[in-house]
Each structure stands twice: as structure tokens, then as C-alpha cells.
Amino acid sequence: MKTIALTGGSGSIGSAVRKYMISQVGELRIVDVADPGTLEENETWHAADITDVDSMTSAFAGVDGIVHMAGLRSETDLESIVRVNVMGTYNVFEAARRSGVSRVVYGSSNHVDGFYPRTTLVDPQMPMRPDTRYGLSKCWGELTAGMFYDKHGIETLSIRIGNAAPRPRDRRALSMWVSPRDLAALILIGLNHPQIRCNVVYGVSKTAEPWWDNSAATALGYTPQDEIAAFAEPGAFHPEPADTPAVVKFFQGGGFCMQEHDGVVRLRTDD
């Protein structure tokens, strides 16, 4: 891939993976409303808003592939999620179609599967069970990728990103954390692998306590380099407090599966 557009490249995940991608592409075009700050020699910034399809079409002119990481990364009101995550993601794929871009990597989320029990080994072929409105918007994104593949031939690797905090800090993260290096490796597979059609994999590093069957990623050549336990904060190994609600301990989505009392279940931006 010569020129790659990275939506959300100024955000926490986008910024973290950029340094592992930069040597593997000719130009990394950061597409974001926010200033990314200091740029490497082969990085550029194109200020564009995913809610504006014409702006995105302009941003994607001449690119060879798109990595879509932009959007709201917290649980909030439905109107905002629909405007940014639902319509924004549709705009990215529509702009890719208009610009003649045939390969996309989509940043999906573990919250697509949050209502599976922790005792269930989940694979991407199983029905989606989103735990939040945010997770529901990621289901939409994966289905949007499918429609654009079937109708327009745009190939997509959807990566259900696990916990992307700087370090794993709780028991849940020990099963789903992903390092920037491993996530970048998956992204590059999505951009370059010749067998990508409309594939879904999990973005997770090595773990002794897996919740997901990631054989689909392994088949594409993904071999995570980082062991979750080696990066974890000491508190991650502590048992969950005795007063932790049963629903939190039972489901993979943890606290995001709880009923809402104030209208919103808050989602940390790195979960």
C-alpha cells in the first residue's frame, strides 16, 4: 500500500498505531477534525469530518486503502451515536466507493459481543450480542462493510478491538487487551492480505484466558507478539471485589451489560 488514509488518526488508538505503521506505507494521511500535532516525514493531515460525505470523498482522493478508526468511543445518547458512528461510518464507505478505494480496515469493537457469557468462546460467525448503543453502532458498521462488499466489491477487514488502554488494569482486560504493536500488525494484514473479502477478526494480544476464537486472524497470518500479562498493572490480577454485581462478573461486557439508571452506562474510551 502506497498511500493510506487513517480516519481518527489524531485519537488515542490512531496515534498509538501510527508509529508501527509509518515505516510500512508510502504516505499516511491522517483524516481527522483534530490537529494530530507533530507529523513524521511521510505523514500528512487532512482536516475532514466523517459526518460530511463530500469532505470524506475529498480526503480519500488518490489513496490506496482506508483505516477507519474515527467516531465516538463512549456510550452516549442515541442521536449522537447515530449521527457520528452510524452515518459517519456509512459516509466512509460511500466516500471509498466514490473515490475508487477497494480496501478498508474497520475499527469495530468487543462491545459487539458483550452479552456473551465469559465461559463461552466466541467466534466471529456467532450472532452479534451488543451490550450498549455504542456496541450496536459497531454492529451497523460490520453490516455496512458487508453490504458494500456484496454490492460494490469493497473489501474490508473488521477488527473487533479489545481493551486498548495503555496497560491492562483489571481482570476483564486480561482476556481482551491489545497492544498497539499487535493492533497495527492486524491493520497491515487488513490492508495487504490478498485473501481479504469481508472478514471479521478480534484485536487481542496473547492471553492465557481467551474469550474469543481468533483462528480467523491466525489463518491470515496474525501472530501476536505481546503477552497481556507482561504489560498488566498489578491490580489486574486481583479478584473482582466481593460486592461486584453478578451481571458484571458473568458477561464479557462486564459493567456495560448493566441496566441503565440515569439513561447512560458510561464507557471508558479505552475499553
Features of the shown structure:
single chain, alpha/beta, 7-stranded parallel sheet, 14% strand, 271 residues, 8 helices, Rossmann fold
Explain what this protein looks like in three dimensions.
With 271 residues, the chain is of the alpha/beta class. It has one domain (3-257): Rossmann fold. The protein has helices at 12-21, 53-59, 78-99, 133-152, 180-192, 215-219, 228-231, 246-250; strands at residues 3-7, 27-31, 43-46, 65-68, 103-109, 155-161, 198-203. The protein has a 7-stranded parallel sheet, sandwiched between helices. The chain contains 8 helices and 7 strands, in the order E-H-E-E-H-E-H-E-H-E-H-E-H-H-H. The mean pLDDT is 95. Helix 5 (180-192) links the parallel strand 6 and strand 7.
The succession of helices and strands, N to C, reads EHEEHEHEHEHEHHH
% residues in beta strands: 5-15%
Q: With helices defined by DSSP (H or I, 4 residues minimum), what is the helix count?
A: 8
Q: Helicity level, as a percent range?
A: 25-40%
> How would you write the strand order of the largest sheet?
3-2-1-4-5-6-7
SSE topology sketch:
Layout: E1 3-7, H1 12-21, E2 27-31, E3 43-46, H2 53-59, E4 65-68, H3 78-99, E5 103-109, H4 133-152, E6 155-161, H5 180-192, E7 198-203, H6 215-219, H7 228-231, H8 246-250
Parallel strand pairs: 1-2, 1-4, 2-3, 4-5, 5-6, 6-7
Helix pairs in contact: 1-5, 2-3, 3-4
